[in-house]
Amino acid sequence: MADRPPASTGADPGAAPTLDRERPGRHRVLWLSTIAFTLMFAVWLMFGILGTPIREEFGLSEVQLSWIVAAAALNGSLWRLPAGMLADRWGGRVVLTGLLLLTAVPTYLVSQASSYAVLLVLAFLIGFAGNAFSAGIAWNSAWQPREHQGFALGLFGAGNVGASVTKFIGPPLIAGTAGATYFGVIDGGWRLVPVVYAALLVVMAAAVWFGTPRHDLKPGTGVPFARQVAPLRQMRVWRFSLYYVAVFGAYVALAAWLPVYYMDNFDVSLQTAALLTATYIFPASLLRPLGGSLSDRFGARRVMYWTFGAMLLTSGILMMPNGHITIVHADGRETEHLAYTLGLVPFVVLVFVLGCAMGVGKAAVFKHIPEYFPDNVGAVGGLVGMLGGLGGFALPPLFAYTKAWSGFPTSTFAVLFVLTVVCAVWMHWTVVHMLHRESPQLAGHLDHPTPEEAPA
Predict the structure, then answer these.
(1) C-beta of residue 282 within 8 angstroms of C-beta of residue 311
(2) CATH topology of domain 20-220+234-445
(3) In the chain, where are the structural domains located?
(4) What separation in angstroms does the CA of 426 have from each of 273, 283, 384, 421?
(5) Residue 366's closest CA among 217, 131, 158, 94?
(6) pLDDT tens digit string along 76-132?
(7) Structure pTM?
């Protein structure tokens, strides 16, 4: 199956203007949506830090805790497709403001939770925060000029760094307010964190509503629903979605999973585990603009090759269990050979490199979308984001169950290794199949073909 963007697209009467001077509010849209997404992402993944004190207070098992994380990831994925489509139809200003306010209510109620069942329901509702991604992608695609969309969408996606916000403010806030009560109804400790976030969500909703252009761009206005979803029948959309499971779904899962992993396997404190996890989250988030720029310059597929190569190398090392081989000799003697142990420092370095690869790869995946589907970014981006987020829902329980089945904590990275292999093989098979079907000269035009090259 050939995989190339269209040489040209027809003008859409509802599409964004092409000249920067015709978009005086585009910078406000980009920066305010990015700040809002950063906050929403922090709320979405706050159980990565709150999970430890919650587990202690409610006496939860590791599997039960993983389902709290997974419930938030699930609802943060289910509505990405409609959120992106609605942002195209109604404008991102309305949709993003609504999501901010909608998330604030269950976020506050977490502070009042009294049972595991209630926490599970509230975690699911808080997942609405994750749907801000597809709304923001559609909104910024409408406002940003095409030649800079890779960087702009990468910058917006860098809001993933919100996953580290709770890692920094959570432990000291929890430790410093434990046992306190505020206004007679708000408890300190871990229960204070969701109250703070709920207030910030309301403030951010006001900033987005009043700080961005009142007359929004709505490229999906008047477009029939069937036309909006028509690209979803193409196999490449589903392939892009699988890539996003590897670079984003796995990122969400690991961001929530690593604090517990560090504490259980390296015997560090919650605060130290949070800081170490931040060394993974920061590059996996802040390098998205770089990934977008590299994709603008070299092509998204070439960047994906680099991404998958780095992920295979790092996860291949990280999945190796600590231990040694014991040989029992004929005389009954036992000798140990090939002892292997991965210490804390090399583990942190490898996870850092893994985060760098994911950060670049996330931007490269979304560079494909406005390139191939310039008039359907909301629907296609929503589906890709939805399936990527569903990966973040499925992976934490999978990490827990594979560890319980194998007995190896490093099975977490074996799951990631296998997923990356599938993505890399499918992508490479597509490229090779395309070159064999067409002609050798396509090798130099994988991302930017000439208009004369007919699609397969």
Answers:
(1) no
(2) Growth Hormone; Chain: A; (1.20.1250)
(3) 20-220+234-445
(4) 35, 26, 16, 8
(5) 158
(6) 878 888 888 888 888 889 999 999 999 999 999 999 888 999 999 999 999 889 889
(7) 0.69
